[in-house]
Amino acid sequence: MASGIGIWQVDEHVYATDATAENYWEALSSGNGSAAVGMFSSVPELGALGPAQNLVLSAETEDETPDEDTDDEPEQDDAERDDAEQDDAADPDDAEDGATEDSAEDSEDAAEPEDAPAPPAEDRLELGSVDSVLLDGEALSHSAEQIEALSITERSDGADLAFTVDGEQHEAHLPMTREGSVWFFFDDWKLAPEAMTEVELSVPAASLGGIGQVEVNGQPVNLHEDGATLAAFVPTVVDVGIDSQWLTGSGHDVVTAEGDHRIDIELEASETAAELLHDEVEEYLTGCAEQEVLMPSGCPMGITTPNQVDADTISWEMPDPSDISLTFGDDGWSISGADNLRATVTFESLDYFDGGELDESHDVSFGLDIQVGASGEDLVISVIGD
User: Fold this and answer.
1) What pLDDT shows up at residue 285?
2) What's the whole-number mean pLDDT along residues 84-101?
3) Is 68 exposed, middle or buried (0-12, 13-18, 19+ CB in 10 A)?
4) How many CA atoms within 13 Å lie on the side-chain side of 256?
5) Chain centroid, CA 50 distance in Å
6) Largest Cα span, the chain
7) Each residue of 9-67: pLDDT tens digit?
8) DSSP state for residue 211 in the 8-state scheme
9) Confidence of residue 259 (pLDDT cuts 50, 70, 90)
10) C-alpha dihedral over 263, 269, 273, 277, to 10 degrees?
11) Which residues make Cβ contacts (< 8 Å) with residue 287, sequence separation at least 6?
12) What is the CATH classification number for the domain harbouring 161?
């Protein structure tokens, strides 16, 4: 009777669904994606999944390294050994080269760490259509750090998680399957594939703005056709940011269940980009204003008068460049406020008819043709008269 009670207590506290959920959460909190993946009954079909498969393999084969059995190696007979020794003696250079190559290969194998670091962003994307950055390391730890006041409730088909993110309450269900028993008494619970899902990340017109990479939970992720697909555990907090001098944008999502998860990042021109635009426009207008003529060369503004003008008194007052705004949308960069500008020119003249002295002032409407584009990491702005 006492042994039966002991078995029940072990099963209740060690092999129950909430215990599995606690171990799962500990793995997520420590950023140990391999341990978390090892708790799944199987991994869902998330595209090619790339490095996530590496996590699965490392979790499954960690304790299953076969022992080397040297007895099964074929033995050379005496004749074969003699032939090999004669060949080596006949061509010592080849033997030395072979030894050198073998030594180099052995050195490389010895230098390779047992646990290879997570592949960089450029490799993750090449390995598969789904990026696994959220499944391990610092990005996974960042997610767990945002989750507070976590509580776990046992269910017959898994466990329920309740938690808060930024003060907002969330709930997530961890589906599980019973994968037989341990020692004939204890249920072996595994996370169902639905406890892993994917998040679609969309950054419209990113390529037009020279954006090829974003930061997800502080880690770089390459974009492909202005987007990316990310594998994610349930639950996961996803924070996306654009680290660019010219464009800004951010996104946030809390993944609590399998299904469609999409983060759309709206890019906006940065203050630095707006300042660069205003500097370029001001430089152009200043070049026009410095010409003490009524029709500045290469400029869209100008007037004519029948009167005799004193050229030394010509003065142009140009519009404020800050009246022109720079924005970014689905079609890329766009300019507003540049097609209806007004300058004022003042000068002294002699009346054409009676020769009287005049103080003339004229408002001149004009427009600017401003083109903005990205060239690598540079923002190229072209200003000409419209």
Assistant:
1) 97
2) 44
3) exposed
4) 15
5) 16
6) 127
7) 444 444 588 999 999 999 999 999 999 999 999 888 765 444 444 444 344 433 443 44
8) -
9) confident
10) 150
11) 298, 299
12) 3.10.450
Residues 6+ apart with CB under 8 A from 350: 307, 308, 310, 356, 357, 358
Number of alpha carbons in the 13 Å side-chain half-sphere of residue 95: 9
120 has a pLDDT exceeding 90: no
Average confidence score pLDDT of the chain: 81
169 and 235 part of one domain: no
Rounded CA-CA distance 183/45 in Å is 31
Separation of first and last alpha carbons in the chain: 95
* For the chain, percent of residues with pLDDT exceeding 90: 65
> How many domains, the chain?
3
Which of these three, 244, 268, 292, is where a domain ends?
A: 268
Question: Do 264 and 279 lie in a common domain?
Answer: no
The amino acid at residue 64 is E
For 255, the domain range is: 196-268
Q: Is residue 226 part of a domain?
A: yes
Is 35 inside any structural domain? yes
Q: CA torsion angle for 141, 145, 146, 151 (degrees, to 10)?
A: 110
Query: What is the pLDDT confidence band of residue 243, given thresholds at 50, 70 and 90?
Result: confident
DSSP 8-state symbol, 111: H
220 & 305 share domain = no
Q: Give the C-alpha separation, 385 to 373, whole Å.
A: 18
The pLDDT value recorded for residue 12 is 47
Residue that is written with structure tokens 């759309």 in the block: 264
* Structure-block tokens of residue 348: 């002294």
Look at the alpha carbons of 164, 56, 65, 181 in this order and tell me if their dihedral is positive or negative: positive
Cα separation, 251 vs 242, in Å, equals 9
In a domain, 277, yes or no: yes
Tell me, yes or no, whether 263 and 285 share the same domain: no
**pLDDT of 63:** 40
- With tokens 């996974």, the residue in question is 140
Reported as half-sphere exposure (CB side, CA atoms, 13 A), residue 2 has a value of 0
Stretch among 202-206, 240-244, 332-336 having the lowest mean pLDDT = 240-244
Residues in the chain: 386
